[in-house]
């Protein structure tokens, strides 16, 4: 697995990214973010805001799902292969339904000890089967047994970004289960191309708290600055993606990053406050937050 495709948490201060982004045209004026040089016609009015949840297991609790969920529009719920179990799946689905948040499955390689972040060599049939199994398991819990979307986790997500066979197996599994499900993919990736060619409903994803390479892939967690912890920077980057469809890469270049949904990791330090601030600043920028089913045709 190429490390540059890595998804998930990590370490790093993000100060290098902050220094480069400061050179670009985002400034805080009064209490509102202002975007210089962006024609009004290009400013989007709606985005989905998603978060990975239900990643506790047994007596071990991970993240502050009950607080973060108040600020997001869609959740990706672990289905037992990297985290979660039947009780946590039921609790998290109930929580999402109580908050009126859209529900999606978050399937993974069968890797509980490694939290689904270790690459595994599975055949396309095995990938299809583990994805189908986890979608079906989670879909048993919501009212009506219907999900909005599927977003793979960790190493499975990473590999699909650049591996056509892996991406195809995931896409095939989701479409075979329910063609109406939305496929959450990294924006601009080979995976997006595969999903679109198959006629899938696609939500292009970006990340609030992850640094991006000039090639548009996620900086590996092993590198400093891979996960951005600076609250102000995370908020600025998120709103810039939602309004402009652009992001500053780690080398200081500004690249297009056209996204329908933006993910904030629930286990990122300060995630609750970050989610709150992101929602406040999106509103100030005139961006409405809606579940992806209301965005994706």
Q: Helical proportion?
A: 25-40%
Q: What series of H and E elements makes up the topology? A: HEEEHEHEHEHHEHEHEEEHE
Number of domains as seen in the coordinates: 1
Question: Would you state the CATH class?
Answer: Alpha Beta
Uncertain spans: 1-43
Counting DSSP H or I runs of 4 or more residues, the number of helices is 9
Q: How do the strands line up in the largest sheet?
A: 3-4-5-6-7-8-11
Q: In terms of structural class, how would the helical and strand content be classed?
A: alpha/beta
What sort of overall outline do the alpha carbons produce when their principal axes are compared? globular
Cα Rg = 18 Å
Structural account:
The protein has helices spanning 15-21, 65-68, 86-99, 124-139, 154-162, 164-177, 190-197, 231-244, 271-284, and strands at 26-29, 32-35, 46-53, 74-78, 102-106, 149-150, 182-186, 201-207, 246-248, 254-256, 261-263, 288-289. It is an alpha/beta fold. Helix 4 packs parallel to helix 6 (164-177) and helix 8 crosses helix 9.
What's the layout of helices and strands?
Blueprint: H1 15-21, E1 26-29, E2 32-35, E3 46-53, H2 65-68, E4 74-78, H3 86-99, E5 102-106, H4 124-139, E6 149-150, H5 154-162, H6 164-177, E7 182-186, H7 190-197, E8 201-207, H8 231-244, E9 246-248, E10 254-256, E11 261-263, H9 271-284, E12 288-289
Parallel strand pairs: 3-4, 3-11, 3-12, 4-5, 5-6, 6-7, 7-8, 8-11
Antiparallel strand pairs: 1-2, 9-10
Helix pairs in contact: 4-6, 5-6, 6-7, 8-9
């Amino acid at each position: 697995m190429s490390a540059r495709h890595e998804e998930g948490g990590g370490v790093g201060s993000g100060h290098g990214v902050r220094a480069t982004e400061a050179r670009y045209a985002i400034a805080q004026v009064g209490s509102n973010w202002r975007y210089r040089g962006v024609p009004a016609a290009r400013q989007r009015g709606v985005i989905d805001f998603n978060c990975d949840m239900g990643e506790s297991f047994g007596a071990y609790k991970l993240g502050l799902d009950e607080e973060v969920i108040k600020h997001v529009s869609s959740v990706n719920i672990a289905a037992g292969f990297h985290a979660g179990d039947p009780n946590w799946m039921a609790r998290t689905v109930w929580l999402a339904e109580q908050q009126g948040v859209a529900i999606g499955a978050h399937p993974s390689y069968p890797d509980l000890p490694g939290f689904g972040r270790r690459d595994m060599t599975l055949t396309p049939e095995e990938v299809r089967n583990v994805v189908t199994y986890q979608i079906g398991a989670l879909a048993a819990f919501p009212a009506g047994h219907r999900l909005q979307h599927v977003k793979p986790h960790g190493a499975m997500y990473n590999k699909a970004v650049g591996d056509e066979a892996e991406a195809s197996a995931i896409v095939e599994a989701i479409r075979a289960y329910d063609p109406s499900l939305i496929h959450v993919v990294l924006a601009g990736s080979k995976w997006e191309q595969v999903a679109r060619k198959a006629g899938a409903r696609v939500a292009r994803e970006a990340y609030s708290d992850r640094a991006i390479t000039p090639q548009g892939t996620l900086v590996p967690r092993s590198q400093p600055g891979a996960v951005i912890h600076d609250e102000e920077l995370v908020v600025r980057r998120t709103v810039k993606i939602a309004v402009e469809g652009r992001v500053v890469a780690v080398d200081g270049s500004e690249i297009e990053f056209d996204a329908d949904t933006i993910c904030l990791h629930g286990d990122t330090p300060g995630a609750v406050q970050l989610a709150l601030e992101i929602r406040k600043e999106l509103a100030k920028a005139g961006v409405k937050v809606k579940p992806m089913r209301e965005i994706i045709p």
